Amino acid sequence: MKPKILTTMRGYTGSLLIQDAIAGVTVAMVALPLSLAIAIASGADPAKGLVTAIVAGFLISLLGGSRVQIGGPTGAFIVVVFGVIAEHGYDGLVMATFMAGLILLVAGYFRAGVLIRHIPEPVINGFTIGIAIIIATSQLKDLFGLDVAGVPAAFLAKLEVLWEAGSSFSVASALIGCVTMVLIVLFRRAAPKLPGLIVAVACTSACVAILDLPVETIRSQFGELPSAPAWPTLPVVGFDRVIELLPSAVIIAFLAGVESLLSAMVADRMISGHHRPNAELLAQGAANIGSSFFGGLPATGAIARTATNIRAGGKTPVAGLIHAVTILVVMLLASRLVGYMAMPALAGLLILTAWNMSEPQKWRGYLSARKSDVFLLFLTLVLTVLADLTVAIGVGVALGLAFRLQRSNSAASDWSEPDR
């Protein structure tokens, strides 16, 4: 369970530092708009996303079991975080994140990292696609500039409210959002190693400011961003509060563990390496506890940012440390500039993120799988969208394990590389 940084620092050279520094700054420019957008979509203040990327991102790289893992807030948490904030308030989310961190520490201590291979893959795919659908629909308000006082958490109620607000459709907002998405796709294809996300969002947000378009920005909607993280504080712990938030903490811990270990497995395939799953769980636990101390969001390993780090030349956990420090520097020196980012641009960014999460290139393969796997995927998807993520995962895992027990010749799960 030794952190990977202790191994990789042996014989560390100046040339490795240069490669890690370039990769760290590059992935920070990708993480910056994503962290803001994820926090906003989760119903939190945008600065909470930056704090999470700084604190949790630093701890995951410092203590984790992967050479190249990049941690921070991810889209997988949006649904859970939005629900916890709506039901228990933001202080409830902080407490649930703290509890999830403790659960992950216990899981790492008891070497539960290998259990990831026993979770049915159709369940992972089903709730991932379901989360992607919820994320995409939650961004329609900002993408189209709809005048909605509050968007319900329930999926069908949300669609009804958005439909009724259709008369407030803003051409300017839709244009900024769509152009941002087109630019992101073009940058990704033309220069995949460069941080095209921040360039695309910066270009369209600059157009909003220069042309004085009637489009919402982070500043106009949330006010000025803070120029430094808040001082750490301990969550207020009470027995009744712990019992009330325990289900949310368990699902946050489950998502953090699954997402981080999946990301580490993908990274292993990309660099031909081997991560330490139990060290990774311990790092996720410490990161979520640290994030809660600073009032941040839940965090985990981020597949897209980890892949960006690898493609940009990151070799050791130092790249992840530099990524966190870079975001801190931006927060300290350029928070006013970040406040000019256009809301439709961030909405377009998250919609593309949701599309990539769903892995559309694999849908045909999902449908050609055995009937029980197809049923399990669709059941988990529907329950995620229409019911509750906790119910979806609980039912999906239980049924998946039951199906596996029925198949005496069942082979071990062979995870295919996600491309989220």
TrEMBL record:
The chain crosses the membrane at residues 21-41, 47-63, 70-86, 92-110, 122-141, 161-187, 194-211, 245-267, 337-355, 375-403. It holds the Pfam family Sulfate_transp. It is a multi-pass membrane protein. InterPro entries: SLC26A/SulP_dom, SLC26A/SulP_fam. It comes from the Bacteria. Its main location: membrane. Residues 17-380 form the SLC26A/SulP transporter domain. Keywords: Membrane, Transmembrane, Transmembrane helix. It is found in: Membrane. This is SulP family inorganic anion transporter. It comes from Sulfitobacter porphyrae.
